[in-house]
């Protein structure tokens, strides 16, 4: 067991193209979002496992001795497996959560205990740990916050138990694990996601683990070999959406107007493929005309998504406000409100970006400048984290 403090971060995600079409067997492109979740793990010797999630006001502690005395054989189902409903029930008992506990708290705690007990159980004695997880990602906005949480937990627990080596060497500010180690992190993170979401596609945890851009097609996930980091505005309209109802709406429209809707889905598929091709070509020094193609693809897809019935007046407003400044936006994820992305071309003056953010904020939206295509799960030295993150992890 390692004795040093570990600082791990993992990114969120946005869907660049292919939302909804992916449900009907088309390609989707998901990209990492450089709004990250940070985890600090400190081994300690007070015989407790502490979990603190300051974003949602959770602080819980369990006695290691009590956890150790549990018959954890209910977790024994091969190496990396799907949590069964029996396991979930047992974990609820172990967690000792009150009946009126909020859903987010219950799921976050269960995912933690599942990963802690499953990964650390191979140790001679369960470790006493203090874990704090803080995120820049808003929860429940379709930005992969639960996947980033599971990825951080899996990476930190596997590392502290020496199932994978700590890749951070003396003098490093930040480093990443090898491909094989990332595969193991991703497998366990998927288990955490299953605990939270039941039957997730696995895209969110894959993007958070690998970073960059991923292609998702009929259950197969592959990483794009080369993809540039692109500056974007991420706008949260704060209009609540119901993914299930929106997905059902598209299905109904497809059944009602197959000749009209099927070609839209085929066209969205072609947009994803064209975007994949252009991203692959952009490399280190993207050319202005490549940005123009990306903008055209964004506009066309946004129109298609409107035609599928997943637009919203708030998203129209986002597109109009940014269009008036020569910028191009589309919804990301389920639509019907939620979040949108706006591509920022290189060379755009900062005052112009600020004015656009201001205009969106005055529509009542939350708007952040960030990037897509950022690195996946990473391990940091204490001195390399900015003071804002340090303070958040310190609960200040
Ligand atoms: O809003 P998100 O990130 O959960 O994305 C939903 C994406 C859909 O294509 C609309 C649904 C799905 O399961 O792929």
UniProtKB/TrEMBL annotation:
Query: What EC designation does it have?
Result: 2.7.1.36
Reactions mediated catalytically = (R)-mevalonate + ATP = (R)-5-phosphomevalonate + ADP + H(+)
The chain positions of domain GHMP kinase N-terminal read 122-212
Q: What class of enzyme is it?
A: transferase
Q: Which GO terms describe its molecular function?
A: ATP binding; identical protein binding; metal ion binding; mevalonate kinase activity
Query: Can you say where in the cell this protein is located?
Result: Cytoplasm; Peroxisome
A Gene Ontology annotation in the biological process aspect, one of them, is:
cholesterol biosynthetic process
Superkingdom is Eukaryota
Please explain the role this protein plays, according to its UniProt record: Catalyzes the phosphorylation of mevalonate to mevalonate 5-phosphate, a key step in isoprenoid and cholesterol biosynthesis.
Q: How does it assemble?
A: Homodimer.
Q: What is this protein called?
A: Mevalonate kinase
Instruction: Look up and give the organism this protein is from.
Output: Pan troglodytes (Chimpanzee)
């Amino acid at each position: 067991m390692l004795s040093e403090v570990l600082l791990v971060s993992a990114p969120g995600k946005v869907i660049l193209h292919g939302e909804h079409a992916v449900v009907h067997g088309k390609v989707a492109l998901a990209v990492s979002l450089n709004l990250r979740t940070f985890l600090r793990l400190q081994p300690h010797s007070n015989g407790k496992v502490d979990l603190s999630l300051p974003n949602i006001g959770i602080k819980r502690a369990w006695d290691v001795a009590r956890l150790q005395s549990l018959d954890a054989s209910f977790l024994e189902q091969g190496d990396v497996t799907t949590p069964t409903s029996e396991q979930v029930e047992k974990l609820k008992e172990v967690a000792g959560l009150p009946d009126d506990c909020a859903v987010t708290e219950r799921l976050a705690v269960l995912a933690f205990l599942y990963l802690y007990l499953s990964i650390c159980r191979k140790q001679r004695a369960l470790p006493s740990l203090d874990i704090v997880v803080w995120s820049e990602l808003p929860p429940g906005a379709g930005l992969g916050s639960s996947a980033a949480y599971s990825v951080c937990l899996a990476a930190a627990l596997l590392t502290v138990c020496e199932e994978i080596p700590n890749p951070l060497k003396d003098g490093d500010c930040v480093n990443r694990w090898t491909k094989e180690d990332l595969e193991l992190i991703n497998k366990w993170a998927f288990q955490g996601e299953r605990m939270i979401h039941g039957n997730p596609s696995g895209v969110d945890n894959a993007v958070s683990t690998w970073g960059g851009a991923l292609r998702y097609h009929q259950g197969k996930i592959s990483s794009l070999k080369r993809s540039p980091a692109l500056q974007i505005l991420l706008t949260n309209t704060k209009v609540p959406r119901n993914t299930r109802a929106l997905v059902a709406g598209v299905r109904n429209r497809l059944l009602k107007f197959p000749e009209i809707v099927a070609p839209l889905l085929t066209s969205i598929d072609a947009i994803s493929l064209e975007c994949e091709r252009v991203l692959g070509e952009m490399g280190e020094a993207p050319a202005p005309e490549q940005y123009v193609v990306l903008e055209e693809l964004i506009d066309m897809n946004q129109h298609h998504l409107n035609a599928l019935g997943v637009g919203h007046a708030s998203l129209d407003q986002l597109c109009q406000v940014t269009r008036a400044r020569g910028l191009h936006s589309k919804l990301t994820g389920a639509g019907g409100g939620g979040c949108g992305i706006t591509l920022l071309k290189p060379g755009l003056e900062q005052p112009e970006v600020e004015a656009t953010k201001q205009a969106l904020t005055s529509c009542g939206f939350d708007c952040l400048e960030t990037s897509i295509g950022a690195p996946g799960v990473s391990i940091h030295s204490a001195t390399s984290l900015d003071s804002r993150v340090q303070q958040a992890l310190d609960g200040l």
